[in-house]
């Protein structure tokens, strides 16, 4: 283990750039909760600087504070000085892990199983996904839940179990061919990233993404087996594992041959666009990462860029509301594009969601590591959703969809509300259009 | 940790609970600063009272332990006013944030000191009323801090500063006693005006815990415009000519090119990054008057050589423009590692000369200065873009700063228009006030806080 303090190894001016103006404070969900300065972005940056200066040790309190941060990046949107909080947080968390100041064997085992094993091996992940799917399909889960066996689990696992998302098989490789061509001659050639969580839990979103791209003149290339983008690793302080995954992903594509590399998950996209920074010291991969970063687009960003075609069929009086994924909004600064896509849908009543820019509490593994704060934020989000009276909630990130869906299922006011990705609504509208026109031409 | 600190913290915790008394190294490190980047000192202990009685308890306890007291809200001050001194107890009022009463019949609102400034304005807005003072940090600054520093903002030209809206306040004195100063009467001349003495006293005379504020009717209409210039002088001339034409807009904000670029980098509101300067102008009031004044202001700007005058299409665009301007100081931090903000005000007739002097001082000392400010009220914020790690450069900053202060005072200006003296400006206060006035100020401090318990080391050398 190297003795170099990760925070010390950072360009010091990044830490210095925070001049304490406090503009970040009102945007921070954890400061809002505690009103303690150390639970604010400004306070956390100060703590990091103290560590970099050698005035403060990486203590348990420091570690807890870094873990209490959602990493929602709302502070980066608010920061006039442009402080790169995301990178600072990743390095601070990295330093916490390197020093091993928190967590017993259970936490280490959990992190190892997930970050080092599961999320690094896509085949294994699909295998686990299939078993989970069987477990859920065969009714074992509901039987066990009815028997009350779950009460025997330790609290953290109980929270996890209750929140276990429903696996949706078949996965993307069975739904999307390696190369799919649009009906008309292709105007663009794009690569589609199917993700790991998206692939297991929301593979229909991947199919919908491919369909929408095809309907807008894109040839879609989708490697059958893809690696996790590594965002989960980077956000949790495992920067080396994140670099390893980034290299594997770069190896999968000949970047120059694509007009765009499409991601449909806000959290992944936010990380995927920063491969160059992540691989800054890697002489072999850095140049390719730069080219890659330039091509990565969120699907909504890309569709607006190429002038997405409005579907011609009406959905008919559906009230839709949109919740911005933090990493799409604050990480990638994509605010208007998903709304622009939703506005293309004929007959849809798009209603604004209060505090759409406020984290829902999903935040990667946050709902597992900080169940209490996560639940508070989810409750706040559900209140706002209920106030819209919408029957569809759209959001562009699987973590948010999982969290909100999970909350809505248990809330009688919202049990009927559908959670989906904006591209799913577009894909459905295009499909309706096709069936309406049918083989005989116009209806 | 010294024995005194331990027992001070223990006594406070016994009464208020351990959750509201912080002594961990990690906590002390993050209450060491305010919005002034270069100043820093860890306190001994941080406490979060929830009522005036609890604040009084904190003062009495600190007094017994002879611990200095520093009051703090959100820590957005820009003169080091809430930076602690060694061994200090930080009394943090950000949890005392209730709105106590909005009285629409008397056009007043009473709030606790920790109430966020913007919340007050938003609450007033629901009743067709308006709280005009709007410091750049209004989204997070607390009213207690605004009162302590007598904060200004973008609307000072027409509406004045915090002091003009404080009708009454409750304060805990250094003795631990609680006083109410002022009332809801528009006219009141009973005795010395102690209320005004507390406004702008920077936490050195008492701890303000509640404030009664005057509200004004929400203007029916407003128009916000952006004028761009190829020279700084033309922008200055526009301001002089608008005032000379007997128009008092609510806002006349000036940004130089450096500031324009940094703000645009952050806010993306379409500021002309090639312009040497811009003016953000706003007039509000009766729709007819607003239309007339806006047209006249646009004409004056054009006559002074503005290359373009753009009017915000709607409230949303106007608000975006004003928020962008409010972020100017922080946005300048994009350029260099350390940002040092100044706050000088000169009589408006001296503005053009002052802007030119600042530019010359930057050139003379080889420094980078971004200048912006409330041009309509003569309040400028020359901001040094520098690096505190470079001792030589910091020395040149000091030289330039002294020069700017000298010039400010020579033309009848003041060393601070809205940020307060705090730590940052105390070397210059005597220079501005002269011996007699300076001693009078010290007499007042000595009378109200004979033991020097409240925010010692601030204002006075």
TrEMBL record, chain A:
Residues 8-39, 59-83 form the 4Fe-4S ferredoxin-type domain. Its EC number is 1.1.99.14. The keyword Repeat applies. Component of a complex that catalyzes the oxidation of glycolate to glyoxylate. Transmembrane segments: none annotated. Its cofactor is [4Fe-4S] cluster. Keywords: 4Fe-4S, Electron transport, Iron, Iron-sulfur, Metal-binding, Oxidoreductase, Repeat, Transport. This is Glycolate oxidase iron-sulfur subunit. It comes from the Bacteria. Binds 2 [4Fe-4S] clusters. It catalyses: (R)-lactate + A = pyruvate + AH2; glycolate + A = glyoxylate + AH2. InterPro entries: 4Fe4S_Fe-S-bd, 4Fe4S_Fe_S_CS, Cys_rich_dom, Glc_ox_4Fe-4S, Helical_ferredxn. The keyword Oxidoreductase applies. It is an enzyme of class 1 (oxidoreductase). SUPFAM superfamilies: alpha-helical ferredoxin. GO terms for molecular function: 4 iron, 4 sulfur cluster binding; D-lactate dehydrogenase activity; glycolate dehydrogenase activity; metal ion binding.
UniProtKB/TrEMBL annotation, chain B:
Its cofactor is FAD. It holds the Pfam family FAD_binding_4. Its EC number is 1.1.99.14. Keywords: FAD, Flavoprotein, Oxidoreductase. One of its GO terms (molecular function) is FAD binding. InterPro entries: FAD-bd_oxidored_4_C, FAD-bd_PCMH, FAD-bd_PCMH-like_sf, FAD-bd_PCMH_sub2, FAD-linked_Oxase-like_C, FAD-linked_OxidoTrans_Type4, Oxid_FAD_bind_N, Vanillyl_alc_oxidase_C-sub2. Residues 39-218 form the FAD-binding PCMH-type domain. Coiled coil: none annotated. Belongs to the FAD-binding oxidoreductase/transferase type 4 family. This is Glycolate dehydrogenase. It comes from Lacipirellula parvula.
